[in-house]
Amino acid sequence: MPHEDGAAYYPIVATVSLGAALVLDVYRKAAEGSREEAPVYRILQEARSLLITTGTMYTDHLHGIAEVTIDEDLRPETIANWDELGAPGDFALGKNDRATRTSLTYRDVLKVSNIGSKLKLFGKR
Fold first, then answer.
1. Looking at the whole model, is its pTM more than 0.85?
2. Do 56 and 15 contact (CB within 8 A), yes or no?
3. pLDDT at position 28, please?
4. Which of 104, 106, 100 is nearest to 21 (CA)?
5. What is the DSSP string of 1-40?
6. Helix (H/G/I), strand (E/B), else coil: 86
7. Torsion of CA 18, 42, 10, 7, to 10 degrees
8. Could you report the per-residue pLDDT of 53-88, keeping only the tens digit for each?
9. What is the pLDDT of residues 11-48, one digit of tens each?
10. Which one-letter DSSP state was computed for residue 56?
11. Secondary structure element (H or E) that encloses residue 55, with its range
12. Half-sphere exposure at residue 125, Cβ-oriented, CA atoms within 13 angstroms
């Protein structure tokens, strides 16, 4: 389901994808928290790839992963990062069969709770 990560994680989020590839759909935000029907970008996240989200891509868009077993219509005209793919030949048939993927998301959360400092679990910034 398309969503945004929220102000606590702004201005930057870095996501490392491990395992299988998949398509991340990016939607322009519409009025009152809704979104446009079709994605404005489709980003193919290969295994062992890094995606950094910042700026207007973070503030003005929603992102999500469709609940499908096969990503289809994969070609330079439909995938925003096609020219940056490490192995575009892996998708030469225009599809990607989904398999297990692990996503590691790195965020710099400046302040969410005081409990860590009270327990002296984390150093001060």
1. no
2. no
3. 87
4. 100
5. --B---GGGTTEEEEEEEES-EEEEEEEB-GGG-B-SS-S
6. coil
7. -110
8. 888 887 788 889 999 999 999 999 999 999 999 999
9. 788 999 999 999 999 998 877 766 667 899 999 999 99
10. H
11. helix 55-59
12. 6
Residues 80-99 have a mean pLDDT of 96
- Pairing type for strands 70-72 and 61-64 reads unpaired
d(CA 82, CA 21): 13
Grade residue 99 by pLDDT with cuts at 50, 70 and 90.
Answer: very high
* Residue 95 amino acid letter: K
* Structure-block tokens of residue 98: 């989904």
CB 43 within 8 A of CB 23: yes
- Closest residue by Cα to residue 14 from 110, 109, 106: 106
Query: Please, what is the Cα angle at 32 between 106 and 61, to 5 degrees?
Result: 35
Tell me the C-alpha distance between 3 and 1, whole Å.
6
Residue tagged 């077993």 (tokens): 69
